[in-house]
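[Automated response] Your request has been received and processed.

Submitted sequence:
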Amino acid sequence: METKEILKKSGWIFMIIASVLIILFTIGFIISQYVQIKNENKNSTTQSYIPQKNIQKTYSEPQWGEMPIYYQFENLNSCGKIIPEKILRSFEKIKIQTNNTVYFEENINKLGINITCYQENSNEETIDEAAYFTNKYRQITNAEINFYDTNNSDYNPLCKNSSYIEVHQILHALGFAHSTDSKSIMNPNKKCNETIDTGIIDKLIITYKQ
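Generated structure:
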């Protein structure tokens, strides 16, 4: 009897120990799975975030970040009829010659080229000027083109039928500087010839081709 009782108690103890071990094993397995899932989610989140990170490219030369380049007219009533027509004709000229690589769109709600006309001229040495502005990555964020003395009925009489000045200033807004080449449209002394240099067209296509 005593032996049977001892065996019986030993069996119960063994079962209890086994049950405890099973429970501990189960708890350990659950915890390990939880940790593994948590780590996988963490890695997955990190991996999905990296491609979305906005890595801004630094340009070697000033250039616009994307197409189209937006523009708007300020004081349009002060521009008269000729200047807006020449500006639009110049935009179209650049678009066609770059095979639609560089193109423009009017939008008053976005940064772009701001074209302003002034009927008076406080600086008689110039009737037009342009400037562009860049961020730290040398990306052009916006530009300004100003025309002066537009109230004069004889505004720019030397190039009345030419868009030389308008194309010249738009190219300034695209980042091109003056040229000493007498045949270049970026030469400030090249009067009324609105032919755009082949080198400028090629550079625009290479720079902005997607």
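Summary generated for your ticket: The helical segments are 2-49, 82-97, 164-173, 198-208. The two ends are 94 Å apart (CA to CA).
If you did not submit this request, please reply to this message.
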